[in-house]
Specification:
The chain is an alpha/beta fold and 371 residues long. The protein has 16 helices and eight strands. The chain folds into two domains: 210 residues, Alpha-Beta Complex (Spore Coat Polysaccharide Biosynthesis Protein SpsA, Chain A); 140 residues, no CATH class.
């Protein structure tokens, strides 16, 4: 049995895949104890040739070719889990890479803690692989600790949706039959939060164990706040958000979900505002489909992060879709004049916003039975 199985979905990543694979080979842990599963989503470049090269050279490297293009990584990750032989599971995006001691640190942490999974610190890198100076989580502020789903402050902040900065006990995932959503975005958010709701032991590791490459190419998940989302995208994300909400509701953890919702509400609204691919007719269809989602703002006692968001959401709730669209166009025009960092800060709630949500915690508890 391998100590770890790393599952890697691939699609048109000939420029970057070698960096990831070499970062695994050069781990301080013996890389022969790591099973590497590359699941290709019908790449059109030389990605498949690179996979064949490494599988021919290393017996612990496996290549799987999907029989149809899925565009979203959930199917590839699920297929990879089917053949995983490691005691623990890790996931990587094919254009990212690992620090040299990542696998050893994650393996030692989950073994010592006997945890269901470990989530860890990570860091961004430029498109050329240059690692940024500071990690995502301040090492002085956030030390190693045990997470709790009733902790809406520190645990919520640390538990990001990505599956890539984590290690999971395979038997735990199998016991609870946890899988990634397929055919929709946010597939990793569903997987990660499902694991969190079912887990008894989850720990945060402050060490940086993952390098998240920033690039802006059409075949890659967006890593910036400048979005260009199609009608189909919004239909898919709506489907995913419904599944995530229902999952939290069925497991009795809407208290934690409220904070997740606040982040998603802001994130999604600015995706909608920024998209230039939608006609007004398509925008109305999207708002009709997602009205249930924006209605949750009142139901969950989660106020909008900014006044301009509140104005749009009120229009949606009242089914004044054209009015909402008119507001969106004004804000979109303003955002084209803003620096990138300002736009990014607008798209996510800040600490003040989360404190505002906490004021309504007790009020929500009293009304939770009616949700």
């Amino acid at each position: 049995m391998y100590k770890i199985s790393i599952i890697i979905p691939t699609y048109n990543v000939e420029k970057y895949l070698r960096d990831l694979l070499e970062s695994i080979i050069n781990q301080t842990m013996n890389f022969r104890e790591i099973q590497v599963i590359m699941v290709d989503d019908l790449s059109k470049d030389n990605t498949r040739d690179i996979i064949d090269e490494y599988t021919a050279k290393y017996s612990n490297f496996i290549g799987i070719k999907l029989n149809k293009n899925n565009k979203i990584a959930g199917t590839a990750r699920n297929e990879g889990m089917k053949v995983a032989e490691g005691k623990y599971l890790m996931f990587a995006d094919s254009d990212d890479f690992y620090p040299q001691d990542a696998c050893e640190k994650l393996y030692n942490a989950i073994e010592q803690k006997k945890a269901d999974f470990i989530t860890a610190n990570y860091i961004n890198a430029d498109f050329d692989g240059t690692v940024w100076e500071k990690p995502i989580f301040d090492k002085e502020k956030y030390k190693d600790f045990k997470l709790s789903i009733t902790d809406y402050n520190k645990s919520f902040y640390i538990l990001n949706s990505s599956a890539c900065n984590k290690i999971f006990r395979k038997t735990f995932v199998e016991e609870h039959q946890i899988k990634f959503l397929e055919g929709v975005p946010a597939e990793d958010a569903y997987f990660t939060t499902s694991c969190f709701m079912q887990s008894k032991k989850v720990y945060y590791l402050s060490d940086v164990i993952y390098c998240y490459r920033q690039r802006n190419e059409g075949n890659k998940k967006s890593k910036s706040v400048s979005f260009n989302c199609s009608r189909d995208y919004f239909s898919r994300i709506n489907n995913a958000y419904q599944k995530i909400y229902n999952n939290f509701k069925e497991n009795g953890h809407l208290g934690f979900y409220r904070y997740t919702y606040a982040k998603n509400m802001s994130y999604m609204l600015y995706k909608f505002i920024d998209s230039s691919m939608l006609t007004d007719e398509q925008r109305i269809d999207v708002l009709k489909e997602m009205r249930w989602f924006y209605n949750l703002s009142d139901i969950l006692k989660v106020p909008a992060a900014q006044k301009c968001q509140r104005m749009i959401i009120e229009k949606i709730q009242k089914e004044d879709y054209q009015g909402a669209i008119n507001y969106c166009k004004i804000i979109a025009d303003i955002r084209t004049q803003l620096p990138k960092d300002v736009k990014e800060n607008m798209s996510r709630p800040d600490s003040k916003m989360y404190k505002e949500i906490s004021k309504y915690d007790e009020e929500f508890k009293e009304s939770e039975e009616n949700v």
